[in-house]
Design a protein that fits this description.
Number of strands of chain A: 5
Order of helices and strands of chain B: HHHHEHEEEEHEHEHEEHHHEE
Largest sheet of chain B: 6 strands, antiparallel
Radius of gyration of chain A: 16 Å
Shape of chain B: elongated
Number of helices of chain A: 5
Number of helices of chain B: 11
Number of strands of chain B: 11
Shape of chain A: globular
Largest interface: A-B, 24 and 15 residues
Oligomer: heterodimer
Strand order of the largest sheet of chain B: 2-3-4-5-1-6
Structural class of chain A: alpha/beta
Largest sheet of chain A: 5 strands, parallel
Strand order of the largest sheet of chain A: 2-1-3-4-5
Amino acid sequence: CISYKPFSLPEQLVGTDESQQQQLAEAILKEKKTFKINIHVATSLPLPAERDHIRPRIDLIAFMINMQSKHSLRNVEASLSHMDANFFLGKVCFLITGVGRMNHCSVEMNAVRKLGNLYCSPVLFCELDSEGIRVATAQRLLRMLQICAGHMPGVSALFFSSLMKSSIDE
Amino acid sequence: MDETVAEYIRRTVLKIPRHEIMEMLTMWEFLSKTQLQTINVHQIKEKISQEVVELCEVITSIVNDNHTYRNKKVWTVYQMTKAAGEETDSFNLADFKYKFKRSLRSALKNVTINFREYEDNAIWIRIAWGTQYTKPNQYKATYVVYHSQTPYVFISSLRSSLPLLCQALVHASSYHDIHEMELRSRCIDSLKDIVFKRYSQTFQTYHPRPLQERNVAPEKVDPRIIQENKREKERIQRVNQEVFGEGLQPKIEFAQYKLETMFKGEPEMDILTEKEPFRCVVKFSSPHLLEALKSLAPAGMADAPLSPLLTCIPQKARNYFKIKERKGILSASCLGP
Protein backbone atom coordinates (compact mmCIF):
# COMPACT_ATOMS: atom_id res chain seq x y z
CA CYS A 1 0.00 0.00 0.00
CA ILE A 2 1.66 3.17 -1.14
CA SER A 3 0.52 6.49 0.09
CA TYR A 4 1.61 9.78 -1.29
CA LYS A 5 2.65 12.47 1.04
CA PRO A 6 1.75 15.89 -0.27
CA PHE A 7 5.02 17.46 -1.38
CA SER A 8 5.70 20.85 -2.76
CA LEU A 9 7.52 20.55 -6.06
CA PRO A 10 8.75 23.83 -7.40
CA GLU A 11 9.15 24.18 -11.09
CA GLN A 12 10.61 27.11 -12.97
CA LEU A 13 9.46 28.46 -16.29
CA VAL A 14 11.87 30.90 -17.87
CA GLY A 15 10.93 32.81 -20.99
CA THR A 16 10.01 36.18 -22.43
CA ASP A 17 6.40 35.57 -23.44
CA GLU A 18 4.43 36.17 -20.29
CA SER A 19 1.01 35.14 -21.57
CA GLN A 20 2.33 31.84 -22.88
CA GLN A 21 4.05 31.13 -19.58
CA GLN A 22 0.90 31.93 -17.69
CA GLN A 23 -1.22 29.67 -19.88
CA LEU A 24 1.20 26.77 -19.56
CA ALA A 25 1.47 27.24 -15.80
CA GLU A 26 -2.30 27.12 -15.51
CA ALA A 27 -2.46 24.00 -17.65
CA ILE A 28 0.09 22.31 -15.41
CA LEU A 29 -1.84 23.22 -12.28
CA LYS A 30 -5.08 21.89 -13.78
CA GLU A 31 -3.68 18.39 -14.11
CA LYS A 32 -4.66 15.90 -11.51
CA LYS A 33 -1.86 15.09 -9.16
CA THR A 34 -1.28 13.92 -5.66
CA PHE A 35 1.45 16.35 -4.77
CA LYS A 36 1.58 20.08 -4.37
CA ILE A 37 3.32 22.09 -7.00
CA ASN A 38 4.56 25.66 -7.21
CA ILE A 39 5.49 27.29 -10.44
CA HIS A 40 7.92 30.17 -10.58
CA VAL A 41 7.65 32.23 -13.71
CA ALA A 42 10.56 34.41 -14.74
CA THR A 43 11.68 36.36 -17.77
CA SER A 44 15.37 35.57 -17.30
CA LEU A 45 18.00 34.32 -14.91
CA PRO A 46 19.49 35.01 -12.47
CA LEU A 47 16.44 35.33 -10.31
CA PRO A 48 16.12 38.49 -8.22
CA ALA A 49 18.27 38.04 -5.14
CA GLU A 50 15.80 39.58 -2.74
CA ARG A 51 13.53 36.54 -2.92
CA ASP A 52 16.29 33.97 -2.37
CA HIS A 53 15.46 33.34 1.23
CA ILE A 54 11.82 32.45 0.59
CA ARG A 55 12.40 30.45 -2.58
CA PRO A 56 12.33 26.68 -2.22
CA ARG A 57 14.68 24.32 -4.02
CA ILE A 58 13.84 24.19 -7.69
CA ASP A 59 13.33 20.71 -9.14
CA LEU A 60 12.88 21.41 -12.83
CA ILE A 61 13.62 24.36 -15.10
CA ALA A 62 11.91 24.75 -18.46
CA PHE A 63 13.34 27.37 -20.78
CA MET A 64 10.85 28.68 -23.33
CA ILE A 65 12.12 29.79 -26.73
CA ASN A 66 9.93 31.26 -29.44
CA MET A 67 11.30 30.45 -32.89
CA GLN A 68 9.82 33.67 -34.17
CA SER A 69 11.80 35.80 -31.78
CA LYS A 70 15.59 35.93 -31.79
CA HIS A 71 15.23 37.97 -28.67
CA SER A 72 13.81 34.97 -26.78
CA LEU A 73 16.76 32.78 -27.84
CA ARG A 74 19.35 35.34 -26.79
CA ASN A 75 17.55 35.76 -23.50
CA VAL A 76 17.70 32.03 -22.77
CA GLU A 77 21.36 31.78 -23.81
CA ALA A 78 22.22 34.60 -21.44
CA SER A 79 20.23 32.97 -18.63
CA LEU A 80 21.93 29.59 -19.10
CA SER A 81 25.32 31.03 -18.27
CA HIS A 82 24.08 31.89 -14.80
CA MET A 83 23.06 28.42 -13.87
CA ASP A 84 24.56 25.92 -11.51
CA ALA A 85 26.05 22.96 -13.38
CA ASN A 86 24.13 20.51 -11.21
CA PHE A 87 20.93 21.43 -12.92
CA PHE A 88 22.13 20.04 -16.19
CA LEU A 89 21.94 16.52 -14.83
CA GLY A 90 18.45 16.11 -16.17
CA LYS A 91 16.69 18.99 -14.46
CA VAL A 92 16.60 21.31 -17.46
CA CYS A 93 14.55 21.15 -20.62
CA PHE A 94 13.86 23.46 -23.52
CA LEU A 95 10.34 24.20 -24.73
CA ILE A 96 10.29 25.45 -28.29
CA THR A 97 7.23 27.22 -29.69
CA GLY A 98 6.44 28.88 -32.98
CA VAL A 99 7.76 26.17 -35.29
CA GLY A 100 4.37 25.80 -36.92
CA ARG A 101 4.81 28.97 -38.96
CA MET A 102 8.11 28.35 -40.74
CA ASN A 103 7.90 31.60 -42.71
CA HIS A 104 8.01 33.63 -39.55
CA CYS A 105 10.88 31.82 -37.86
CA SER A 106 13.91 33.93 -37.23
CA VAL A 107 15.66 31.33 -35.10
CA GLU A 108 17.29 28.43 -36.91
CA MET A 109 16.53 24.82 -36.05
CA ASN A 110 20.22 24.10 -35.82
CA ALA A 111 20.71 26.71 -33.18
CA VAL A 112 18.08 25.07 -31.01
CA ARG A 113 19.43 21.53 -31.51
CA LYS A 114 22.93 22.71 -30.70
CA LEU A 115 21.64 24.23 -27.51
CA GLY A 116 20.05 20.95 -26.49
CA ASN A 117 23.25 19.03 -27.25
CA LEU A 118 25.49 21.53 -25.55
CA TYR A 119 23.54 21.42 -22.31
CA CYS A 120 22.58 17.73 -22.54
CA SER A 121 18.94 18.56 -22.09
CA PRO A 122 15.82 17.51 -23.95
CA VAL A 123 14.30 19.82 -26.51
CA LEU A 124 10.50 19.67 -26.69
CA PHE A 125 8.69 21.22 -29.63
CA CYS A 126 5.23 22.37 -28.67
CA GLU A 127 2.76 24.78 -30.21
CA LEU A 128 1.38 26.12 -26.96
CA ASP A 129 -1.35 28.06 -28.73
CA SER A 130 -3.20 24.81 -29.25
CA GLU A 131 -4.99 23.62 -26.14
CA GLY A 132 -4.44 19.93 -26.85
CA ILE A 133 -0.68 20.38 -27.17
CA ARG A 134 -0.64 22.59 -24.11
CA VAL A 135 -2.30 19.87 -22.04
CA ALA A 136 0.05 17.21 -23.41
CA THR A 137 3.09 19.37 -22.66
CA ALA A 138 1.80 20.04 -19.17
CA GLN A 139 1.49 16.31 -18.57
CA ARG A 140 5.00 15.67 -19.84
CA LEU A 141 6.44 18.37 -17.66
CA LEU A 142 4.63 17.00 -14.64
CA ARG A 143 6.01 13.55 -15.30
CA MET A 144 9.51 14.96 -15.64
CA LEU A 145 9.00 16.97 -12.50
CA GLN A 146 8.05 13.91 -10.52
CA ILE A 147 11.20 12.15 -11.64
CA CYS A 148 13.43 15.16 -11.03
CA ALA A 149 12.06 15.51 -7.51
CA GLY A 150 12.80 11.87 -6.83
CA HIS A 151 9.19 10.79 -6.60
CA MET A 152 9.55 7.91 -8.98
CA PRO A 153 11.21 5.02 -7.26
CA GLY A 154 13.94 3.56 -9.43
CA VAL A 155 13.97 6.39 -11.93
CA SER A 156 16.38 9.29 -11.67
CA ALA A 157 16.72 12.49 -13.63
CA LEU A 158 20.04 11.29 -14.98
CA PHE A 159 18.13 8.96 -17.24
CA PHE A 160 16.96 11.90 -19.33
CA SER A 161 20.38 12.53 -20.80
CA SER A 162 20.85 8.87 -21.69
CA LEU A 163 17.57 8.99 -23.60
CA MET A 164 18.98 11.78 -25.70
CA LYS A 165 21.97 9.89 -27.01
CA SER A 166 21.47 8.64 -30.50
CA SER A 167 22.78 5.18 -31.32
CA ILE A 168 24.79 6.60 -34.19
CA ASP A 169 26.88 8.68 -31.84
CA GLU A 170 28.61 5.71 -30.24
CA MET B 1 -23.93 57.68 -56.88
CA ASP B 2 -26.47 54.91 -56.96
CA GLU B 3 -27.67 53.92 -60.46
CA THR B 4 -31.31 54.06 -59.41
CA VAL B 5 -30.87 57.54 -57.93
CA ALA B 6 -29.17 58.77 -61.09
CA GLU B 7 -31.98 57.31 -63.14
CA TYR B 8 -34.59 58.92 -60.87
CA ILE B 9 -33.00 62.34 -61.24
CA ARG B 10 -32.79 61.93 -64.99
CA ARG B 11 -36.45 60.97 -65.34
CA THR B 12 -37.66 63.68 -63.00
CA VAL B 13 -35.90 66.38 -64.99
CA LEU B 14 -37.31 64.96 -68.21
CA LYS B 15 -40.85 64.88 -66.87
CA ILE B 16 -41.29 68.39 -65.53
CA PRO B 17 -41.89 71.33 -67.87
CA ARG B 18 -38.82 73.26 -69.00
CA HIS B 19 -39.76 76.52 -67.29
CA GLU B 20 -40.06 74.76 -63.91
CA ILE B 21 -36.67 73.00 -63.96
CA MET B 22 -34.64 75.77 -62.36
CA GLU B 23 -37.24 76.27 -59.67
CA MET B 24 -37.21 72.59 -58.80
CA LEU B 25 -33.44 72.34 -58.74
CA THR B 26 -33.23 75.36 -56.47
CA MET B 27 -35.79 73.79 -54.17
CA TRP B 28 -33.72 70.64 -53.89
CA GLU B 29 -30.94 72.76 -52.35
CA PHE B 30 -28.43 70.23 -53.50
CA LEU B 31 -26.57 72.08 -56.23
CA SER B 32 -24.95 75.41 -55.54
CA LYS B 33 -25.88 78.67 -57.27
CA THR B 34 -22.75 78.61 -59.40
CA GLN B 35 -23.51 75.09 -60.48
CA LEU B 36 -27.11 75.93 -61.30
CA GLN B 37 -25.88 78.79 -63.43
CA THR B 38 -23.88 76.40 -65.58
CA ILE B 39 -27.02 74.53 -66.66
CA ASN B 40 -28.41 75.67 -69.97
CA VAL B 41 -32.18 75.22 -69.90
CA HIS B 42 -32.57 76.05 -73.57
CA GLN B 43 -31.02 72.88 -74.89
CA ILE B 44 -32.90 69.65 -75.46
CA LYS B 45 -34.26 68.04 -72.34
CA GLU B 46 -32.06 64.96 -72.63
CA LYS B 47 -29.00 67.15 -72.47
CA ILE B 48 -30.33 69.07 -69.48
CA SER B 49 -31.04 65.94 -67.51
CA GLN B 50 -27.63 64.58 -68.40
CA GLU B 51 -25.91 67.69 -67.07
CA VAL B 52 -27.93 67.63 -63.87
CA VAL B 53 -27.06 63.99 -63.22
CA GLU B 54 -23.36 64.68 -63.79
CA LEU B 55 -23.37 67.61 -61.41
CA CYS B 56 -25.16 65.58 -58.77
CA GLU B 57 -22.65 62.77 -59.16
CA VAL B 58 -19.77 65.11 -58.52
CA ILE B 59 -21.41 66.42 -55.35
CA THR B 60 -22.26 62.99 -53.99
CA SER B 61 -18.79 61.74 -54.70
CA ILE B 62 -17.32 64.56 -52.65
CA VAL B 63 -19.58 63.76 -49.74
CA ASN B 64 -18.92 60.03 -50.02
CA ASP B 65 -15.23 60.39 -50.51
CA ASN B 66 -14.84 62.51 -47.44
CA HIS B 67 -16.27 59.79 -45.33
CA THR B 68 -15.17 56.61 -47.00
CA TYR B 69 -11.80 57.61 -48.37
CA ARG B 70 -10.81 59.62 -45.37
CA ASN B 71 -8.87 56.66 -44.10
CA LYS B 72 -8.33 54.66 -47.27
CA LYS B 73 -6.01 56.79 -49.32
CA VAL B 74 -2.46 57.54 -48.37
CA TRP B 75 -2.10 61.14 -47.26
CA THR B 76 1.15 63.09 -47.47
CA VAL B 77 1.74 66.15 -45.34
CA TYR B 78 3.12 69.38 -46.77
CA GLN B 79 4.20 72.46 -44.95
CA MET B 80 4.03 75.97 -46.32
CA THR B 81 6.46 78.64 -45.28
CA LYS B 82 6.49 82.37 -45.43
CA ALA B 83 9.43 84.40 -46.60
CA ALA B 84 11.44 86.04 -43.84
CA GLY B 85 9.70 89.12 -42.51
CA GLU B 86 6.35 88.43 -44.15
CA GLU B 87 3.26 89.07 -42.12
CA THR B 88 0.40 86.64 -41.75
CA ASP B 89 -2.68 88.20 -43.30
CA SER B 90 -6.08 87.33 -42.01
CA PHE B 91 -7.59 84.51 -43.99
CA ASN B 92 -10.33 85.20 -46.50
CA LEU B 93 -12.08 82.09 -47.76
CA ALA B 94 -13.62 83.58 -50.89
CA ASP B 95 -10.30 85.13 -51.80
CA PHE B 96 -8.51 81.81 -51.31
CA LYS B 97 -10.97 79.91 -53.50
CA TYR B 98 -10.84 82.48 -56.24
CA LYS B 99 -7.07 82.65 -56.37
CA PHE B 100 -6.74 78.87 -56.21
CA LYS B 101 -9.12 78.30 -59.08
CA ARG B 102 -7.59 81.00 -61.16
CA SER B 103 -4.07 79.68 -60.63
CA LEU B 104 -4.96 76.10 -61.56
CA ARG B 105 -7.20 77.01 -64.46
CA SER B 106 -4.63 79.30 -65.98
CA ALA B 107 -2.33 76.32 -66.38
CA LEU B 108 -4.90 73.64 -67.10
CA LYS B 109 -8.28 74.22 -68.67
CA ASN B 110 -9.75 70.78 -68.10
CA VAL B 111 -9.97 70.54 -64.38
CA THR B 112 -12.90 70.22 -61.95
CA ILE B 113 -12.46 71.98 -58.65
CA ASN B 114 -14.87 71.65 -55.74
CA PHE B 115 -14.63 73.11 -52.26
CA ARG B 116 -16.24 72.04 -49.06
CA GLU B 117 -15.76 73.63 -45.66
CA TYR B 118 -16.03 71.87 -42.35
CA GLU B 119 -16.50 73.16 -38.82
CA ASP B 120 -12.94 72.58 -37.71
CA ASN B 121 -11.62 75.18 -40.17
CA ALA B 122 -10.78 72.44 -42.63
CA ILE B 123 -11.20 73.17 -46.30
CA TRP B 124 -11.53 70.10 -48.49
CA ILE B 125 -10.64 70.64 -52.11
CA ARG B 126 -11.45 68.00 -54.67
CA ILE B 127 -9.63 68.22 -57.98
CA ALA B 128 -10.37 66.06 -60.99
CA TRP B 129 -7.63 66.31 -63.59
CA GLY B 130 -8.02 66.26 -67.33
CA THR B 131 -5.59 66.96 -70.13
CA GLN B 132 -5.62 69.38 -73.01
CA TYR B 133 -7.89 67.06 -74.94
CA THR B 134 -9.71 64.98 -72.37
CA LYS B 135 -12.34 65.75 -69.80
CA PRO B 136 -11.42 65.53 -66.14
CA ASN B 137 -11.31 62.01 -64.77
CA GLN B 138 -13.75 62.03 -61.86
CA TYR B 139 -12.66 58.65 -60.61
CA LYS B 140 -9.11 59.57 -59.85
CA ALA B 141 -9.59 62.83 -58.04
CA THR B 142 -7.02 64.39 -55.78
CA TYR B 143 -8.03 65.61 -52.36
CA VAL B 144 -6.41 68.48 -50.57
CA VAL B 145 -7.19 69.36 -46.98
CA TYR B 146 -6.08 72.75 -45.76
CA HIS B 147 -6.55 74.15 -42.29
CA SER B 148 -6.49 77.85 -42.84
CA GLN B 149 -5.09 78.67 -39.40
CA THR B 150 -2.06 76.47 -39.98
CA PRO B 151 0.65 76.13 -42.62
CA TYR B 152 -0.16 72.46 -43.16
CA VAL B 153 -1.71 70.86 -46.20
CA PHE B 154 -2.68 67.20 -46.53
CA ILE B 155 -2.72 65.80 -50.04
CA SER B 156 -3.87 62.42 -51.27
CA SER B 157 -3.90 60.55 -54.57
CA LEU B 158 -1.63 62.82 -56.48
CA ARG B 159 -0.11 61.22 -59.51
CA SER B 160 1.22 64.11 -61.51
CA SER B 161 0.62 67.86 -61.57
CA LEU B 162 2.18 68.28 -58.13
CA PRO B 163 4.05 71.47 -59.07
CA LEU B 164 0.84 72.97 -60.45
CA LEU B 165 -1.06 72.17 -57.30
CA CYS B 166 1.67 73.46 -55.02
CA GLN B 167 1.90 76.67 -56.93
CA ALA B 168 -1.85 77.18 -56.71
CA LEU B 169 -1.85 76.49 -52.97
CA VAL B 170 1.00 78.83 -52.19
CA HIS B 171 -0.45 81.58 -54.34
CA ALA B 172 -3.96 81.27 -52.93
CA SER B 173 -2.89 81.19 -49.30
CA SER B 174 -0.30 83.97 -49.64
CA TYR B 175 2.61 81.85 -48.56
CA HIS B 176 6.04 81.85 -50.09
CA ASP B 177 7.00 78.22 -50.41
CA ILE B 178 5.84 74.68 -49.78
CA HIS B 179 7.77 71.51 -49.05
CA GLU B 180 6.90 67.90 -48.47
CA MET B 181 7.32 66.55 -44.98
CA GLU B 182 8.52 62.98 -44.64
CA LEU B 183 5.23 62.01 -43.08
CA ARG B 184 2.66 59.73 -44.68
CA SER B 185 -0.28 57.68 -43.44
CA ARG B 186 -3.76 56.49 -44.37
CA CYS B 187 -5.34 58.10 -41.37
CA ILE B 188 -5.58 61.83 -41.93
CA ASP B 189 -6.84 62.47 -38.41
CA SER B 190 -3.71 60.91 -36.97
CA LEU B 191 -1.54 63.03 -39.23
CA LYS B 192 -3.36 66.07 -37.92
CA ASP B 193 -2.76 64.88 -34.36
CA ILE B 194 0.93 64.65 -35.03
CA VAL B 195 1.48 67.98 -36.75
CA PHE B 196 -0.92 70.14 -34.80
CA LYS B 197 0.23 69.05 -31.38
CA ARG B 198 3.86 68.47 -32.05
CA TYR B 199 5.14 70.77 -29.37
CA SER B 200 3.02 69.59 -26.51
CA GLN B 201 4.89 67.62 -23.90
CA THR B 202 2.26 65.22 -22.75
CA PHE B 203 0.90 63.78 -25.93
CA GLN B 204 -2.57 65.26 -26.18
CA THR B 205 -4.66 64.31 -29.16
CA TYR B 206 -6.65 66.81 -31.16
CA HIS B 207 -9.48 64.36 -31.43
CA PRO B 208 -10.91 63.22 -28.12
CA ARG B 209 -10.14 59.53 -28.04
CA PRO B 210 -11.42 57.02 -25.54
CA LEU B 211 -8.81 56.19 -22.93
CA GLN B 212 -6.99 53.05 -23.92
CA GLU B 213 -8.18 50.05 -22.02
CA ARG B 214 -5.42 48.50 -20.08
CA ASN B 215 -5.23 44.87 -21.01
CA VAL B 216 -4.25 43.88 -17.51
CA ALA B 217 -7.64 43.02 -16.13
CA PRO B 218 -7.80 42.19 -12.41
CA GLU B 219 -7.24 38.44 -12.78
CA LYS B 220 -7.56 35.79 -10.17
CA VAL B 221 -3.92 34.95 -9.79
CA ASP B 222 -3.29 31.42 -8.62
CA PRO B 223 -1.03 31.69 -5.57
CA ARG B 224 0.87 28.67 -6.80
CA ILE B 225 2.16 30.70 -9.75
CA ILE B 226 4.88 33.03 -8.55
CA GLN B 227 6.05 35.91 -10.73
CA GLU B 228 9.77 36.36 -10.11
CA ASN B 229 10.32 39.46 -12.20
CA LYS B 230 7.51 41.72 -11.03
CA ARG B 231 9.92 44.62 -10.54
CA GLU B 232 11.28 44.36 -14.06
CA LYS B 233 7.80 44.21 -15.54
CA GLU B 234 6.82 47.31 -13.64
CA ARG B 235 9.93 49.09 -14.87
CA ILE B 236 9.06 48.21 -18.45
CA GLN B 237 5.53 49.55 -18.01
CA ARG B 238 6.89 52.75 -16.53
CA VAL B 239 9.45 53.30 -19.27
CA ASN B 240 6.85 52.58 -21.91
CA GLN B 241 4.52 55.11 -20.38
CA GLU B 242 7.22 57.77 -20.30
CA VAL B 243 8.08 57.24 -23.92
CA PHE B 244 4.65 56.67 -25.43
CA GLY B 245 2.36 58.49 -23.04
CA GLU B 246 -1.03 57.45 -21.78
CA GLY B 247 -3.42 57.73 -24.68
CA LEU B 248 -3.87 55.94 -27.95
CA GLN B 249 -1.06 56.52 -30.42
CA PRO B 250 -1.63 58.24 -33.77
CA LYS B 251 -2.27 55.73 -36.49
CA ILE B 252 0.45 55.26 -39.06
CA GLU B 253 1.11 52.17 -41.10
CA PHE B 254 4.76 52.45 -42.07
CA ALA B 255 8.14 53.59 -40.92
CA GLN B 256 10.95 53.48 -43.43
CA TYR B 257 14.65 53.86 -42.80
CA LYS B 258 17.05 54.29 -45.67
CA LEU B 259 20.46 53.23 -44.44
CA GLU B 260 23.58 54.63 -46.03
CA THR B 261 26.00 53.33 -43.51
CA MET B 262 29.16 51.30 -43.58
CA PHE B 263 28.86 47.57 -43.21
CA LYS B 264 30.02 46.35 -39.82
CA GLY B 265 30.96 42.71 -39.91
CA GLU B 266 33.75 40.28 -39.09
CA PRO B 267 37.22 41.61 -39.94
CA GLU B 268 37.59 38.68 -42.34
CA MET B 269 34.82 39.97 -44.54
CA ASP B 270 37.13 42.46 -46.17
CA ILE B 271 35.11 42.69 -49.34
CA LEU B 272 32.26 44.53 -47.70
CA THR B 273 34.19 46.82 -45.41
CA GLU B 274 35.05 49.17 -48.20
CA LYS B 275 34.71 52.88 -48.61
CA GLU B 276 31.27 52.46 -50.16
CA PRO B 277 28.35 52.59 -47.76
CA PHE B 278 26.14 49.52 -47.62
CA ARG B 279 22.75 50.68 -48.83
CA CYS B 280 19.59 49.07 -47.63
CA VAL B 281 16.06 50.02 -46.73
CA VAL B 282 14.36 48.80 -43.59
CA LYS B 283 10.62 49.11 -43.57
CA PHE B 284 8.32 48.45 -40.64
CA SER B 285 4.66 47.96 -41.46
CA SER B 286 1.62 47.28 -39.34
CA PRO B 287 -2.07 48.18 -39.31
CA HIS B 288 -1.21 50.40 -36.34
CA LEU B 289 2.54 50.76 -36.13
CA LEU B 290 2.93 52.95 -33.06
CA GLU B 291 0.61 50.83 -30.94
CA ALA B 292 2.51 47.74 -32.07
CA LEU B 293 5.82 49.31 -31.03
CA LYS B 294 4.32 50.29 -27.72
CA SER B 295 3.34 46.68 -27.02
CA LEU B 296 6.72 45.15 -27.93
CA ALA B 297 8.45 45.50 -24.57
CA PRO B 298 5.50 44.41 -22.41
CA ALA B 299 5.06 41.37 -24.68
CA GLY B 300 8.68 40.39 -24.11
CA MET B 301 9.70 40.80 -27.73
CA ALA B 302 12.11 43.67 -27.21
CA ASP B 303 13.99 45.38 -24.43
CA ALA B 304 12.73 48.61 -22.97
CA PRO B 305 13.41 51.39 -23.78
CA LEU B 306 13.12 50.95 -27.52
CA SER B 307 15.51 52.55 -29.95
CA PRO B 308 14.89 56.30 -30.24
CA LEU B 309 14.83 55.82 -33.99
CA LEU B 310 11.44 54.20 -33.51
CA THR B 311 10.06 56.28 -30.68
CA CYS B 312 10.89 59.68 -32.15
CA ILE B 313 8.29 59.39 -34.92
CA PRO B 314 5.52 61.54 -33.40
CA GLN B 315 7.87 64.15 -31.98
CA LYS B 316 9.83 64.49 -35.20
CA ALA B 317 6.61 64.33 -37.25
CA ARG B 318 8.17 62.02 -39.78
CA ASN B 319 8.13 58.34 -40.59
CA TYR B 320 10.60 58.28 -43.45
CA PHE B 321 14.24 58.59 -42.44
CA LYS B 322 17.66 58.61 -43.99
CA ILE B 323 20.45 57.37 -41.77
CA LYS B 324 24.02 58.26 -42.58
CA GLU B 325 27.31 57.55 -40.88
CA ARG B 326 28.53 60.14 -38.51
CA LYS B 327 32.27 59.90 -37.78
CA GLY B 328 32.12 56.14 -37.60
CA ILE B 329 29.33 56.05 -35.01
CA LEU B 330 25.96 54.93 -36.24
CA SER B 331 23.36 57.56 -35.49
CA ALA B 332 20.22 58.88 -37.07
CA SER B 333 21.23 62.19 -38.51
CA CYS B 334 17.83 62.95 -39.87
CA LEU B 335 19.08 64.92 -42.80
CA GLY B 336 16.69 66.19 -45.38
CA PRO B 337 14.79 63.93 -47.75
